[in-house]
Amino acid sequence: SRKPSGLSDDHAYVKPGVSGRLKSLRRGFDYFVEFCFGTGTEELTNYARQAGLQPIATAELPTTPSRPQNAVPDATELAVRVQTIPDAVPPAQAAPAPPRRARTAPDTVPPVAQAAPVPSLRERDTPDGVASGGQATADQSSRVHVVPEATELPARARAIQDGTEWMEEPDGDLDTLDAFDNDSFLDAMRREMLFGRTAADDVNLCGPGSVVEQGSDDEDDGALMSSDDGEESGYDSSEASSGEDEVEPTFETTEEELRELTASGWTTYDADHCGELQLSAAADYYDGPSGPTRSALAFADSPLGLFFYFLPKKLWIRIAEESNRYRSQLIPELAQRRREALLSQQLQDPRKSVPPLAEIEADLRRFKPIKPHEIVHVVGLLMARAIAPVRDGLAKHRATAEDSAVPRGTFSRYMKRARFEAITRFLHFNDNEMAEAAHDKAWKIRPVLQAVEKTFRRGYRLGRCISFDEGMVPNRSRFNPIKVYMKDKPSKWGTKFYLTCCAETAYCASVEVYCGKKREGKKEQNVGPKSVVRNITKVLRGQPYKQLVITDNYYSSIQPSIKLHNMGLYHVGTVRKARLGWCSDIEYSQKKKDQKKCQGYPYLVALAWMDSKPVNMIATGCSTHQTTVNRREKDGSITVTPCPQLVVDYADGMSGVDVHDQLRLERYSLQKCVAFKKYYKQLFLGIVDMALVNGLIVHNIAKRQNDERSTPHASYLRRLHKDLLALRDIHFDSHPVAEDLVSGPVTRGDHALANTSNRYESDTQSKRRQYLCKVCSAHTSGKSFETSYFCPTCSDYFGGRVPLCPKVRRLEEGNTLSCAQIWHDVWNDGRNIPALPHQIRFRGKKRKRSETNNAESKENEGGEENEESKEN
């Protein structure tokens, strides 16, 4: 906002929730009273209902005796009335819960425990979900079979008043996962809203003053560094992995109950009685459909289709718009810098002329706007660098000469150096002048996060096991406000993401950036466990539950296990023994390696397992029956070791996030092949890497379903980067949801063949010009066929003529389709071309030499006329 230049009596009344620039027509009006001819009463009422300050069942505002009912009240009076609405439901009094008993087991064979039945937390919940004293005890949105009364406050209002968790249900214009898992998925993709305003209670919003201004955002941030030189000087806001995340989920168990559980709530089974309790796995595990949805499988044959499925064209158009906006905002400062540089040069050389500031700004505004396909070209070039890196700098990819066995660069064939540097310098994703930028530490990449949150979720239906862990996007920039230090990670400095992955395929269904503390000086408890409940609730919204959630010891404790169980989910994970509620009697004493301790509690099982060191585990819904695992000893031999089944469940499921990180970071990583000075560009490349890994996983799942061999990671990226570099501006003007890349029967345009109008003219005959057929030239290694027929629609799409034979060729190979049918039906209009002996290229119409000479002569004449006019 601008600084005040003086005193003024100008004023404006703003509708609650409005941000950005105000319309001039609304200035000087009371929005709720005078604007829209007195409809402000309804506006204020609607806002109060949306904010949860007024019950939905209330039909009209109460009227005062001194004012007629149809009169327009004052806006201030309305606001006071809304704030003083009485509670619709008085808090219920809940009977105090009896102390719970648990059980433990000590040495040797996996022991388990049995205790007297205790009423579950759900059974002890009062009908209104409020404990004695009016304090909320459970998550309103996570309950099952709870139907609110008509007189209750809205869920959002109860959450605001009681401080409980509130999970917003999808709006009417949003589609559930089922909408993307049927044959009409294209309609759902067209309706999908990728971007939106951040909710007031979102996890990423921080307190006032928590987002510190860290350096100028208009400095030369397009310079690229090697991946080892990412650290800069400046404000260092790095923190450890702790902090506050959002309006957090609440746990049913209190600290007093957990301390009582630790002291006397467990029943311990010693080595002689550990076999008395053998718990079986839950019988109602989710066994429904899982894997890629119908919409994702429709794009699975084309790497380019999967790229635009997870990173839609709308996102790239938005990035191009924000990049151009960002550069326009920088023009005054860029002009000032250029003028200062010219003035400093003039001091060295007085003959140097310095144009006025207005002329410099006009020159900067002649910059060619950044197009979406150009940004995609930059990603394609970085993908080529990840596949075939040149270790001595990015500039070597533009080398014009070979150096012995080192080949010359190829980047200049696709984009000029100046254009590449300009795009990377002004690459931007959000408007810095929006009000939310002061409260959201991840505001720089918020549109990207909003888009992938929807596209990742719609592309996959999670199965029986869900892996939850953190992932790291390496970045050592001191300007990064959400940088953390994690000593156990290969890259210890970077931005932390919460990843929810399929334990079997490593597909990432949800990604959430960790933004650190909301307010300085406030210490938040249970950050990890709360993030599990929040993300699992979000990713499974609208789907059946009964999955097994697998976490490590940072995210596991007694509280989230009970919380997930009451939500209808099961949990297994390692746990830290310092967590409240953990059984102190099960502490492992260093004995023989095959001795272990195991303990149970109605649906809760605790266990100490001896691996290379003692490991404490907790689980619900898992089996404690013995099974065996193969263990590799120090000498390389394999031994068969007995262990409880829940240990196997944990080991098999916890690798989901780890495998995703390996595919994302180890070999072909965009974020590690180049480093930017601006941290948010590095985060963007990290998110692009996640989308590429998800695309590879879906592509190979579809391959296996068709009994085909999986595509290697490098081959997948080679084909994708080739398709990205072939994109043009027309590809973003048409097919907004990439429906042209769908495999199978979809609505297509007119692809009728046309005969060329170009002819060979001679004294004796006139003959149509013929061109090599694209299908024939790709298949054959010898003679190819020429044809005068071509597809005008495909020619416009690819930016070059697409000749196709209307006849059936290669009959000796058993072919029964014409080249036009192969191109349109088998190759999906040329979007899914398989690997063939020859590569297909598209060339535009060549200009004749006479036309070129005439154009050059006209330009020269025009230049001479301009010079003469200037002289005159």
UniProtKB/TrEMBL annotation:
Pfam families: DDE_Tnp_1_7. Residues 840-849 have a biased composition (Basic residues). Residues 89-145, 204-251, 838-872 are annotated as: Disordered. Residues 215-234, 242-251, 862-872 have a biased composition (Acidic residues). InterPro entries: PGBD. Residues 134-143 have a biased composition (Polar residues). Residues 105-119 have a biased composition (Low complexity). Residues 302-695 form the PiggyBac transposable element-derived protein domain. PANTHER family: PIGGYBAC TRANSPOSABLE ELEMENT-DERIVED PROTEIN 4. This is PiggyBac transposable element-derived protein domain-containing protein. The lineage of its organism: Eukaryota, Sar, Stramenopiles, Oomycota, Peronosporomycetes.
